[in-house]
Amino acid sequence: MEPHIETVIDRNRMMVSDEIAIRIEDMNKWYGNYHVLRDINLTVKRGERIVVAGPSGSGKSTMIRCINRLEEHQAGRIIVDGIELSSDLKNIDKVRSEVGMVFQHFNLFPHLTILENCTLAPIWVREIPRKEAIDAAMHFLEKVKIPEQAHKYPGQLSGGQQQRVAIARSLCMKPKIMLFDEPTSALHPEMIKEVLDTMIELAEEGMTMLCVTHEMGFAQAVANRVIFMDQGQIVEENNPHDFFNNPQSERTRLFLSQIIRH
Amino acid sequence: MEPHIETVIDRNRMMVSDEIAIRIEDMNKWYGNYHVLRDINLTVKRGERIVVAGPSGSGKSTMIRCINRLEEHQAGRIIVDGIELSSDLKNIDKVRSEVGMVFQHFNLFPHLTILENCTLAPIWVREIPRKEAIDAAMHFLEKVKIPEQAHKYPGQLSGGQQQRVAIARSLCMKPKIMLFDEPTSALHPEMIKEVLDTMIELAEEGMTMLCVTHEMGFAQAVANRVIFMDQGQIVEENNPHDFFNNPQSERTRLFLSQIIRH
Amino acid sequence: MTERNPAFVRGEMLPAREPPAGQTGLLKLLRENFFKDWLSALLTVMSLIVSVWFVCSVFPWLFDSVWNANSLSECRQILAGAEGACFAVIRDRWTQLLFGFYPPEQYWRPVLAFALMIVALAPILFPPVPRGLLRFSVVFPGLAYWLIWGGTLWLPVVVYGGFAVGAVLLRMTGRLGAGPGAGLAIVSALTWWFVAPGPVTTVLEQLLPLSLAPVASREMGGFLLSIVIGVTGISLSLPLGIVLALGRRSKMPLVKTISVVFIEFIRGVPLITLLFTASLLLNYFLPPGTTFDLILRVIIMVTLFATAYMAEVIRGGLAALPRGQYEAAEALGLDYWKAQRLVIMPQALKISIPGIVNSFIGLFKDTTLVVFIGLLDPIALSNSIRATADWQGIYWELFIFIGALFFVFCFGMSRYSMHLERRLKTDHR
Amino acid sequence: GTLDEVKSRGKLNCGVSSGTAGFSAPDAKGVWQGFDVAFCRAVAAAVLGDPMKVEFVPTTGQTRFTALASGEIDVLSRATTWTFSRDTDLKLTFAGTNFYDGQVFLVKKELGVSSAKDLNGATVCIQSGTTTELNLAEYFRINKMTYEPVPVDSSAEGERQYQAGACDVYTSDGSNLASVRASFPNPSDHVLLPEIISKEPLGPIVRQGDEQWADIVHWTESALFAAEELGVTKANVDQLADGSDNPEINRLLGKEGDLGKMLGLDAEWARRAIAAGGNYGEIFATNLGDQTPIRLERGLNALWTKGGLMYAQPFR
Amino acid sequence: MANAITFPTLEPHQAFRLSMLLNDGRYRSYTIQIFVLMCLMLGIAWLVDNTIRNLALLGKDFSFSFLWSTAGYDINQRLIEYDTQMTHGRAALVGLLNTVVLAVLSCALATIIGVVAGVLRLSGNPIVARLTVVYVEVFRNIPLLLWILVFGAIMSEAVPAPNAFKGENATAGMILGAVAITNRGVFIPEPLFTRDLGTLNLGIVEPSLNAIAVLVVVIACVLISRVLVRHANRVQSQTGVRPVIWWKTMTVLAAPPLLLLWALGFHLGYPELRGFNFQGGFQLRNALIAMWLGLGIYTGAFIAENVRAGILAISKGQTEAAHALGLRPGKTMRLVILPQALRVIVPPLISQYLNITKNTSLGLAVGYMDLRSTLGGITINQTGRELEGMLLLMLIYLSLSLIISGSMNAYNARVGLKER
Ligand SMILES: Nc1ncnc2c1ncn2[C@@H]1O[C@H](COP(=O)(O)OP(=O)(O)OP(=O)(O)O)[C@@H](O)[C@H]1O
Ligand SMILES: Nc1ncnc2c1ncn2[C@@H]1O[C@H](COP(=O)(O)OP(=O)(O)OP(=O)(O)O)[C@@H](O)[C@H]1O
Ligand SMILES: [Mg+2]
Ligand SMILES: [Mg+2]
After folding, report:
1. Contacts for D103 with CB less than 8 Å, ≥ 6 apart
2. Ligand 2 contacts CB of residue B36 (under 6 A)
3. How far is D88 from D83, CA to CA, in rounded Å?
4. Which residue blocks in E198-337 are alpha helix, DSSP H?
5. Residue A65 and residue A72: Cα distance in Å, rounded?
6. Distance from C-alpha of D259 to C-alpha of D252, rounded to nearest angstrom
7. Out of C6, C10, C16, whose CB is closest to A234?
């Protein structure tokens, strides 16, 4: 494994407030009879950056998708930004417009230009005037360093560029929390770095982030906490330093040895 | 940049004859109105190994493809092995059977086994008896170290193995010159080395090679000359040592710095 | 809950638990699937009503059917006023619907030909079947012709001889280059076909008679006719379609234009006008005095029709091949035709098989249109059955029988082509 | 000429309708039966010596003339009306009339219609592509009535539509309608209106320009009429062929003179034609007459001596 | 690049040699094309020569003058004025209009059925999904001709005759007192005007001015409502909030046409049973209905598959991304899913339209008087002009097809996804 991240950012410069951004209590989820998530308990404070790791099928994606209700949980509570997720549609809408999400396969809208991708939700959900939405979008596109691509279509960009657009698109909704689900795993190796750089920049600005990733370099550089999941449960939770250098659980150790060898 | 090549081969052991293998004189090529290749002049002697480098879109592939007339040039001359490439189809056929080419994406024939891939052209172009063609193919497959895969289909092999088959397939035509167009750039990093090793072995046997690649380690280890192209022209031409340590042109310097940082 | 700071390690793993009540069981299944919201509930209820109504209205009629009678009036007597189908007509006429007026004592011939067809198709459609059988696939058309039309076996043999003559000449003239060599081969094969069949066949037949009772194509009807027209149309259109597809992709403007015009013309007019051309106009276009079998004329037009569609299917297959395949073949020194034959076509055809099967289904269904020019396909036979005094007035039973047979054929094939498509998808990954 | 072609082929190609009860339809064994069919068999017997050496080619209203013109069939025996434009413009030769028909209307009794003049506003089923269609249009036009045509493409289809009540009236040739009516479960619920609105002389047709062949077809037909006039039947033809005291019978059956040769056939041609299905009267009776479900009266098709129009040209 | 070594110098311009016609890439393609052209010309010449000789042999000429002779036959469904004394050309025009009407009606029906079935097949409801599968498979795998015959039979066998509506103990009744479904067709109320503005004489057709007036007003209203929508878009892009305009557009769309209709004295003419048949109202003949249902339902099965494929082609990720951005399901559908699905669905949809148009030629089977039955049927049969008639017929069908496929290409060019 090549570490893509050279600079470890100054963790102290980024304050973590005491406010709670996400709180998950005894959350359980089943797919049919299959128990995917078991008694998940997790509290994320505003400004915290959490990396979720774990073997494939351990439920990482499912957990993160429960947070903006792309999946429904069946027991326990999820409270995001003070709003409890239930089947109340109003609450779901509120939560979704506070939480941005970046997917593994970008999921840009191929029939819209980059700029339209970024302004779609602000215009139709936030009901911002088009002019303002465009300005905001251009601002975020500059931030991810591709303002010059604004009028192209997603199909015309490279994978790394697309993923950066996806991040900008989420940012345009000015979310308080960002969820990332393996944002770099569908990318060519040369492009991983440009996406990770963007994410680090975001972290430096104090965004609350919950990030499923196997980029351990990123975890070491950015995370406040690393969460290790297996078989639908949180197995270990630790600060990055201890997590990597002194893992407590047998499973974590096994996982890390595999990851690093690969 | 990781150098994949540890051994620098003994250049003196490989003689460069005085015979001319390829001669390109004032060659120009246009795509529509776009001038891709401008006044290319290049002479390659038998046994020489030349590496072509340059930024994306600089016309490297186009130049190399002109040499076996996969692309047509519009002005100037290309003389390969004493045969001038013109629209005379007989000459083109002759040149093509003297020149082997390896592509970035292998381009093996997926409906044929490895062995059939290797014997197809000898049987149908050179009109060699099948028995002999198979013997020759097995010989070259042994050389690229995959004789045991002979009866599999390309889809069942890894990228590195496929590229080695592609090399063997070219060799089966007993070409006097081999062209390589970024043979390793579509490969996973672990597989690059096995392909480069094969190419080095070929170089050691004195094959005339023209190789577009960004593997600077390979260039340093094997090449007699490195050619740097930009905007459709040859900008610099030098021996590898000077090329890397003491580049003459500003553009080369810039390119090398990018390549090495990335 | 507890604040876990800074570190948390789970001691022992939680076991999987059952989902809470209301999350499983029949009730949930019903609620989630059938009554999720009012729309879904409405649809469920409506579907149930439609199904029940259909079953109630059709099943009594079907179950109360009469199989043993010699005419419709006899059926009516047996039913004595009750609602019921009179499938006796099928019992009476099913051989006619299947074979037309093919001589009954010869039925084994088309049946055998059909069975052999499945054997011949096997190596193409089912990869596990040994490739050696492909040789049989090549021989099959001649064999089938002989079985179905009868006459001497030597005729197809001599016709195959034409290919052999062409192939030998192609070998011998290889030095001349591909163009003239192929030209010479084609000319010699054509000459053979024009000159040889008559005398050579007679001589061979005298030496070793191998004859079946000849059957005129006029005697063929029903599904036999549909299958003959459909299968011949598709198999003849395959080589022509390949040529046309290559023509359409050609860089030569004239060749390309001709191909495009032909394809678009054929695809732009209804099949029925082509059939009318076969029956009304073809005689105008041929030298005065030539007449030949209507079925042959129909097969010619149907082949032209299928060729246009086939060309588009194969063009799709060609387009799906990456450019690299062409370039690799070129770089190895293969010329255009060798590259096509050895590298491009085998792959393009394999990709196109589902499309070809679908074209065949379409064509097979379209063979019913020959009823308009007086050929006795199943629908035409159903008309003439209804014209006899015994079965005047019968209707649904015949349609159900014909429809069911078509359904079985086409559904089977379409399932198979879907299966192929899926397999292709995984093959490619 | 056509004669040589037929002889060398060994089969007569005869165009018939693909299904008209009583006139032509294949039975369960695929053997064609009917009035038109019997006529073709007679020609085949005369020319080739075997009534079974006929290839029946089903034609539709649309394809029939083309099939003849292109040489696909040698004779068209498909209840085709002899009209001026067909004879001249379509370049056909009518070899004589073997069935005199006329267009009539079939209606349900419950409608209470007794004359075609009461049909104003009625819905009429009609086979498209036939002369019937034109006659119908003209009749309603002359009588200043309107109607709603429902075109159908076969007799069976027209009959079904009529029975289902999709049209009030079914119009077609009288013979056809009589057979249709006869096949109904209760024929007495339907009436044929008295008006005959057209003349429909039906008969076999050959290509224009081959006089010999036209003569053969015409005289075969005539031979069948003559046989009825002279009392030659299927049963007694062999016996009479050995010689009789009527010279015309002798000429007809080849005992005297060489009429056959003049036609390009052998002497026994007429004998075979008669032996194939009997004389005209017998053919009529077996296919259309009282013993059949069609139960057609001879009417105009009786011999001229019995008040009909059938009249054989002298064999002399 | 100076090089001391001697090198075989070749003449820069080779003289032309005959063998270059075959061996030189530049000339060979000309050689081949000229060869192909010659073959083609020879083939065409052969066909034309045969045709001329055959025509001479039959004593026929090649002329389209038959189009101007009296047709003499009747056509029951006519959109423009026609009677038996008019010409064959006129009859062909009537047939062409019938073809077009049938094609348009069938395309609409097939689209509706196809979209509904395609969507239902994807619905989570297993009964409904199963039923749609049955529908799709049954219709796709049985020949269209059989379906047309079946619908023809249903329309004449399973539906009451007009006299079932008659008398005290009528066994059938009209739906809402306005629509009568009989085995001679479906009778629906027709629009009538008490104030007739007369007709406009355009030579071939004489459309009623009332209809034109209504049409003009409706088009104008649609244009105005488009302006309203555009205004709403502008407001939205300036302020972010989209004004509620549905009631305005409804008013604009509905009020003026209604007013005009009232002014013209619009009322409905109901069908009434008189004499043999229903009179008044608008008659949709059985043949039309059988063809319409047959074509519509049969093709609907194919369209359903296209629709399903189109929706499935839009990955679940698109919906999830839209949801994650906070878009509600309705807006997700309108802004994200539909625009993408349409790109996938429309091209095969248009080729189904092409099929429908070509398949209208099966009208013969149930006696529908379309172009093929008039020009390609009775006219050819009566005049014996099969060569001219068939050529004309093919040309007309070809033009219809080209128009349709042209619109498909235009659509593809407009919406094609941009790729790298
Ligand atoms: N829609 C679904 N229905 C049923 N099972 C599902 C569904 N989605 C996921 N699963 C199952 O739930 C488990 C957890 O899936 P999840 O995608 O959350 O894992 P993950 O940790 O994200 O794995 P990966 O690293 O491969 O993305 C897996 O076993 C998966 O097979
Ligand atoms: N078929 C073509 N038609 C038009 N332009 C082309 C075509 N092929 C290549 N080009 C253009 O020609 C230029 C040179 O392309 P070429 O592929 O030779 O570059 P390269 O040096 O090989 O780049 P890379 O490192 O990306 O492979 C590029 O600008 C490319 O866009
Ligand atoms: Mg996951
Ligand atoms: Mg390149």
Report:
1. D132, D135, D136, D171, D172, D173, D174, D196, D197, D198, D200
2. yes
3. 9
4. 209-239, 246-263, 286-313, 316-324, 329-331
5. 9
6. 8
7. C10
Which pLDDT value is given to residue C23? Answer: 59
Q: For chain B, what is the mean pLDDT?
A: 85
Ligand 1: list residues with CB < 6 Å.
A 31, 34, 36, 54, 56-62
Q: Which ligand is located closest to the Cα atom of residue E316?
A: 1
| Probe residue for ligand 1, chosen from A29, A30, A34, A105 as the CB with the greatest number of ligand atoms within 8 Å | A34
Shortest alpha-carbon distance between residue A67 and chain C (Å):
18
Q: How far apart are CA D63 and CA E381, in angstroms?
A: 8
Q: Determine if ligand 2 sits within 6 Å of the CB of residue B61.
A: yes
Higher pLDDT, residue E327 or E267: E327
CA–CA gap between residue E177 and residue C137 (Å, rounded): 65
Phi, psi (5° rounding) for residue E231?
Answer: -60, -45
Whether residue B199 contacts residue B205, with contact meaning beta carbons closer than 8 Å, is answered with: no
pLDDT at site E4: 39
Answer yes or no: is pLDDT of B30 > 60: yes
Per DSSP, the residues of E199-210 read B---SS---BHH
Residue nearest to atom 6 of ligand 2 (CA): B31
B239 to A190, A216, B6, B60, B221: CA distances (angstroms): 28, 41, 19, 18, 11
DSSP string, chain D: -HHHHHHHHTSEEEEEES-BTTTBEE-TTS-EESHHHHHHHHHHHHHHS-TT-EEEEEE-TTTHHHHHHTTS-SEE-S--B--HHHHHTT-EEE---SEEE-EEEEEEGGG---SGGG-TTEEEEEETTSHHHHHHHHHHHHTT--EEEEEESSHHHHHHHHHHTS-SEEEEEHHHHHHHHHHSSSGGGEEE-S-----EEE--EEETT-HHHHHHHHHHHHHHHHHHHHT--TTTHHHHHT--S-HHHHHHHTSSS-HHHHHTS-TTHHHHHHHHH-SHHHHHHHHTSTTSSS----GGGSBGGGTSSB-PPP--
**Which residues of chain A neighbour C20 with C-beta distances below 8 Å?**
74-75
Q: Does C106 touch chain D (CB under 8 A)?
A: no
Q: Give the pLDDT confidence score for residue C25 in this predicted structure.
A: 65
Cβ of B252 closer than 6 Å to ligand 2, yes or no, is: no
Answer whether residue B12 shows pLDDT above 60.
no
C392–D21 CB contact, under 8 Å: yes
Beta strands in E365-418 (DSSP E): none
Q: Which of E242, E320, E417 sits opposite A110 (nearest CB)?
A: E417
Ligand 1 center from residue A59 Cα (angstroms): 6
Judged against a pLDDT cut of 90, whether residue A137 lies above it is answered with: yes
Tokens read off for C87: 């499938």
Any idea what the Cα angle at residue A50 is, between residues A46 and A51, rounded to 5°? 165
- Residue C182's CB: how many other CB atoms inside 10 A? 16
Mean pLDDT, range E247-258, rounded to an integer: 85
Tokens for C35? 């009554």
- Rounded to the nearest integer, the mean pLDDT of chain A is 85
The pTM score is 0.84
| Helix count and strand count (H, E) for chain C | 19, 3
**Which of B27, B33, B58 best tests ligand 2's pocket when mutated (most atoms within 8 Å of CB)?**
B58
The structure tokens listed for B81 are 């092995």
Residue nearest to atom 16 of ligand 1 (CA): A59
CA atoms within 13 A on the CB side of C277: 21
Give the C-side interface with A, CB within 8 Å: 1-4, 6-10, 13-14, 16-20, 23-24
Mutate which of B95, B111, B153 to disrupt the C interface (most C C-beta within 10 Å)?
A: B111
Burial of C209 (0-12, 13-18, 19+ CB in 10 A): exposed
